[in-house]
Design brief:
The protein is an alpha/beta fold. The protein has 10 helices and 8 strands. The protein has one domain (4-242): Aldolase class I (TIM Barrel), CATH 3.20.20.70. The chain binds phosphoenolpyruvate (PEP).
Amino acid sequence: MKQIIVGNWKMNGLTADAAKAADDIGAAMGQDVSGAQVVICPPFTQLALVGPKLREHGIALGAQDCHQDPCGAHTGDIAASMLRDLGVEYVILGHSERRRDHNELDETVREKAVAAAAAGLTPIVCVGESEDQRSAGDSQEAVGWQIQGSLPQGFTGIVAYEPVWAIGSGTAASQQDIADMTQFIREELVRQFGDAGKTIKILYGGSVNGRNAADILPLANVGGALVGNASLAAETFMPIVRAAV
Ligand code: PEP
C-alpha cells in the first residue's frame, strides 16, 4: 500500500505564500516517482484557494482540526461537514499544539474522530509523549493511554506518532525509538481493534526532513510521515515525498 506524506502548514500562509507553495509542490509532483499519497493541510483560510491547485496534481486536501458537533453555537469553530463541503478528505486531530493551546483532552479528540468519519473525512489522530514523560521512562505508557482514550470504537483512520519533544526541534527521534514505539502502537491497535488494527496506518512526525526521511520511512510499522516546517516549500518537502516507499 502507498505511504502517505502529510504536510501540516500550521498557522502559516497568507494568500500569496499559500498559492506559491501549492503551485510549486503541484508542479514538482509531476516528477515524483515514489507513488506516495500526498496530503496538504493548510490553515482553514487557504483551503478553498489551494484545494483545486492541489487536486489537479493528485494531492489530497486536509484540515488541521474540526469541531465534534455537526453544527450549532460554537463561535469560531468549523464542522467536519463544512470541510467535506470544500473538498477536504483528511483532518488532523489531537495535534500536540491543539492539546497544549486549547486544552484538548483524549475524550474530545475521540469525539472529533467520530464526527470526522461521519462526515466522510479520514481522521489523522496524533499521539506522542512529552519531554517529561520521556525522561521519566513513561513514553509507552503515555502513548498507550492516548491511544485508548483518543481512538473511537471501529476507528478506521490514521495514527500519527509525534513525540512532542521532537516537533519543531530540528531533531527527529532515533530510528530505534521510532521502530520501538511504532511496534508498540501496532500492538496496542491490534489489542484494541483486532485484525483491523493490523492495517491502520501509523505515521511518524517530528522534525522529518530531506536528510532523515530515507532512514525513517522504510521502518516496518511506519506508513508515512506527518511533516510540519519542511512542508512549507517544495524544495524541502519534495525530498521527503521522494523518499516514501
Ligand atoms: C508537526 O507539526 O506535526 C510536525 C511534525 O512539525 P515539524 O515537522 O516541524 O517537527
